[in-house]
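re: that complex we talked abt at group meeting.

here r the seqs, copy pasted straight from the sheet so there may be weird spacing, ignore it
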Amino acid sequence: MTEITPITLPKWGLEMSEGTVTGWHLNEGDKAEKGAELVDIETDKIVNAVELDQGGTLRRILVPAGETVAVGTLIAVMADASVDDAAIEGFISDYKPVDASFDPADEEKAEAPARDEPAAAPAKAVKATPLAKRAAQSSGVDIGSVQGTGRGGKVMKDDVARASGKAPERSPDEIRAENASVHASPIARKFANEVGVGLAGVTGTGRKGRVSLGDVQDAAIAAGLWTRPAPAARGALAPSAGPGRAGAEQPFTGMRKSIARALTHSKQTVPHFYTTMDIEIDALTDLRRSLNGAAEDDDPKVSVNDLLLKACGLALMKHPDVNVHVTETGITPYDQADIAMAVAIEGGLVTPVVRNVASRGLRDIAAEAKDLATRARDRSLTAEDLSGGTFTLSNLGMFGVRAFDAIVNPPQAAILAVGGPRREARETDGGVGFVSVLSVTLSSDHRAVDGALAAQFLSTLKELVEAPLKLVS
Amino acid sequence: MQQSPDQIRQAYRQMRLIREFEERLHVESPKGEIAGFTHLYSGQEAIAVGVCENLRDSDFIISTHRGHGHCLARGCDPKGMMHEIYGRADGLGKGRGGSMHIADLDKGMLGANGIVGGGQPIAVGAAVACKARGDGSVSVSFTGDGASNQGTVFEAMNMAVVLKLPKVFVLENNGYSEHTGASYGIGGDLKTRTEGFGIPVWEADGFDYFSVYEAAAKAIDHARAGKGPSAILATATRYFGHFEGDPQNYRAKDEVKTFRETKDALMQIRKKVTGAGIFTEEELDAIDDEVLKLIDASVESARNGPVPGADIMMSDVYIDY
Amino acid sequence: MAVLTMRDALNQALHEEMERDPRVIVMGEDVAGGSGGSSGNIEAAGGIFGVTKGLKTKFGADRVIDTPISESAIVGLANGSALAGMRPVAELMFADFVGVSLDQIFNQMAKFRYMFGGKAKTPVVLRMSMGAGMNAAAQHSQTIYPMLTAVPGLKVVVPSNPADAKGMMKQAIRDDDPVIFFEHKALYSKKGEVPDGEFLVPFGEADLVREGKDVTVVALARMVPFAMKAVDKLAEEGITCDLIDLRTTSPLDEETVLESLSMTGRLVVVDESNPMCSIASEIAGIAASKGFHSLRAPVQKVTAPHTPVPFARELERMYVPSPGDIEAAIRRVMEGV
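got the structure back, here u go
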C-alpha cells in the first residue's frame, strides 16, 4: 500500500470545534489493524478514543499529548512502511486542513451581501424605483439616461423597459411586480393583480392620486378584463355564507312573502324621494297630558301617535294631491283620509287602516287605533281592516330611532316615518332654551307628488303639531 | 404478495444504497468536512424501501430529521444529496439546507424536516391534494417514535380521519427519541393510540423488507381505495447515534452489535433471496460493487463540488420581492 | 473566582439554585437523558449541550424531569407548575422549537399575571440555545429574541459571557416573571472568570464593556465578543468606542444607550438577527426618537441579511455579522456617511 492516510482531529457532534490530544496509544512506527485505538481526544464535554478505520503503520505524530488544536488539524500520518520519508514530509507540508471553525473571518467580507445600512448618496443621484434599478441592471440599460415618468421624474420599471426597446412585459408576475410600486390601496392592488390590470396606467382619484378599487374596476371594465357582477338577490345568498349563520335558511312565511313582494316592487319601481322636517312637540305633549288628565276612567288614553294620525288626516285634507292612489296608468284622488298605521307584530308587520281620520274625534281615533293594534297582534284583523288606505304612518319613535326612510306602500303616494323625541337647545330671547323635537320623513312617489307639495304637506303638519289646538276643535 | 425478481433486485439495491451511503457518512463525518447535524438511517433501511417500493410517481412522501433513507428510497439522486450534505452549490438544496433539509419536489419528496413532528400536518395537506386530484394518489409521512408524542401528529391523524384522506402514517419505532428510550417516552402504545383515531394499523418487522412491503401494500391499498387513512407500525433500530458524534451513553455497548449480527435488514434479505434461489450471492455482490462505486464517486464529487456564494445565500427567500 | 465555560457557569447556577430552593425544578427533552435506554445510565446526556449535567443524580427524578419530545407540553408543564407554586426551569433545546410551543409562551405564560388580576406569578425560566455558527441550518440556528422581546409580559435575557450567564440565570430563577433565557450555542465553550457562589446580575442594566469617546457600539450575545475585537483594533488607531452589552432586551436599558450616544453622537448597533424588526432596529428607533439631537451621523445597523440561516459553512460565515463588518460600520459612522 503506497497510500498515505491523514489522521485529523475529529469532529464529534455539532459543537466540537477543537480538542485536546490527551494521549497516544501507538508510537511512531507501530503497525495496527482496523479498529485499533490510536489516540484519546478530550473536548469540554467528553473524552473519547479515535479508532482506525483502516489498518496501517503510524508514521508520524504531529500533535503531542497535551496540545489543543482545531477540528480538522492533521495530527498524525499513517502509511505503509514502503512509503519513503520524503513522500511523508511532502504530504505533510502540502496538507490543507479543513476549516471547520465556527467564527466568521475577522475581516469584512469581500463578498458580503448588502447589509442593512444607509446607502451612501451617489454623486449624481438618479431617482428610480428599486424595481426599475433591478430591471436596468438585468437588461443592461443605463438608468441615468432613462426618462422617468414617475413623480418628480422618478424612473419606473416600465420606463426602463421602454428604454431597452422592449414593450413593457405583461406577464402576471410582471404586472404584480409593477403594481407593487404604484400608489394604490391594498385592495385595489390585490384586485389589479388578480384581473391583470397594470396600475401604472390607472389614474388615481384618491388622496394624493392614490388608486382606489373603483379606479381599478373602471380600468378593468374599460380593458375588457372584468365585468361587474350582477348583485346577488338576497334569497340567492350562497348557503356557504359560513360562520355567523345561526341556522338553516327558513322559507318565507306568507306574511314575509307578501311584505317582500310588495316592498321590493315598490322600492324597485316607485321613484322615491324623501323630505325630512323637524317638529317641536312640547305643545302636543302638553295637550295630550291635559286630554288624558281630563279623561274619564273608561275613556281610551290618547297617544302621541293618535295625535299625529289626526294631524296627518287634517294635512291630507289641506293637500288632497297627497291623498291619492297611483297606478301605472294614473292617479286617483280620494276625499277622505284613510290612514294605515304600521303595527309591528311577531314575524312581520301589518298596516290596518283608521278610516276618515280628519273628521273624527281624538278619543274615537284613539279607540279605533287601539282596537286595530290589539287585533293586529291577535291576528284577528279582517281583509277589510287592511284594505284601502290612502296614506301610511309609521312610527318607530318608541324604539329611540331618530329618523328613518320608509318605503311607500303602493298604491298610496306617500308614507310618513316618525322618529323619537329628543331634547334640543334653541336660541330664545336672551338665552338658550330646550325643546322636544321629532324628525319626520315623508317618502313620496314622485309620479304623483313633487318636492314642493311634499314640503307644503310637512309644513302644514308642523303647524298642526306645534299649535295643536286645531286637532281637538 | 408476489414480487418479480426485478422488483426484488431494485429493493435490494435501494437498501444497499442507503446502507453504504450512511456507513460512508459515518466514516467521513469526523473528518470535519461535513458541517452541522448528520442523522443516519443505517439499520432501518427495510422500512423506507418496503414502503416506497409500493408507491407511484404521483404519490408524496414527507420525512424526518433522519431523512437520507427516505430520500434515497424515493429515488432522490445520491450525488445531489451528497453534494447537499457537503454544502455544495449544486446540491439538492443549493447548499442552503444540508443533511436535515433534503427535498426533491420533482420526486414527490416534500422534504426532510428539522422540526420533530413538523412534517405530518404537511403530509395531511398533500393528502387533501391527492384526494382533490382523484387519481388514487396517496400521501405518506414517516414518523419516528419520538415525533409520535408531538401534538402535531395527533392533530394530523385526527384531521386525516375526519376528512377521510388518502394518507398513510408510517410509524418507525427505532427505540430511541434522541437520547431517551422510546419505552420511557410513549404512554400507552403506538398501535392502540393510532387505532383510537379509527386508523387501521398494519404491523411489520422493520428489519424485514418483505414484512414491511406486505404491510405497506395493504395500508397503501386501503388509502388508495378511498377508505381513509391507514398506518404501518414498523420496529427496528438505528445503528448510529441520534446524530453523528453522539456518544450514546444511553445504549448498552453490545446492543447494536447484537442487532447487526442477528436482525440486520441486508443480511435478512440476502439470506431469503439467495435461499429461495432468486439471485446468487455473486449477483448481489455485483450490486454491492456498483453501489459502492456510486458512493465513492458521489463523495469524491461532493468534496470537490462548487462552494456556494453570496448570490445563492441571497436568492430564493421569496419567488419575487 | 474560577475560570469556567459558559456551559459550566450555567450548570453551576442551576446546581446552586436547586440546592437553595426546593421549589426549583428542571424539565425538558434529555435534560438527564437515558431513561428507557439499554445502558441503564439514567443521566446519559445531561442536556444536549451539557448544561443540566449532574442535576438528576443530585436532585432526583422528581425535580429533574425528562420529557417526551412534546415542546408545547413542556412549556405547559412549566406554566402550570409555576402557577401552582413551583419555580420551573424548562429547556427547549433549540430556540427554533419555540415555533412548536408558541401558544404556551406568548398567549399563556406572558399574560397570566395581566389577565388574572395581578394575582398570578409565573416564575418560569425557559432556556433555549440559539444562534448560527454551527451549521445547524435554518431550523436550528435562529436568533428569535426580537420576536419574544416584542411580547409584553416576557423578560428576555441574552448573555454574552460566562459570568453574566451565571448571574442572570440565578436572577432569572428568582424572578417572579417569566424569563426567556437565550444561550448562544457558539458561546457554550467560551471561557471566562465567574464569581463563586452568590452572584446576581440584575435585569435591565446594560454593561459598559469598553469606554471610549467617538462611537457608541451596542451589541448582545455572540456579537459582544465580535464587537470587542473590532473596538480593540480601532482603539490602536485612536478611534475609541463605548461598547454596550445589552444583556437583557426586555427590560431594555435605553438610558445607558442614550447617555453614551449623547457623548459620542455616533451609533453602531450589532445584532445577529434578521434586520427587520430586530433589536438593531429598536435601538436605532430609540436613537431617532429620543436621541435625535445627539446624532452626528446616520445610525449603522450591522445585522444578518434578510434570509433564513443557510447551511453551508461558507454561507453561514457570510450570514453572521463578523468583527470586520463591525469595524467597517464603525469607520463608516466616523466618516459620517
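couple things i noticed - Chain A has 13 helices and 19 strands. The domain at 4-94 of chain A is CATH 2.40.50.100 (OB fold (Dihydrolipoamide Acetyltransferase, E2P)).
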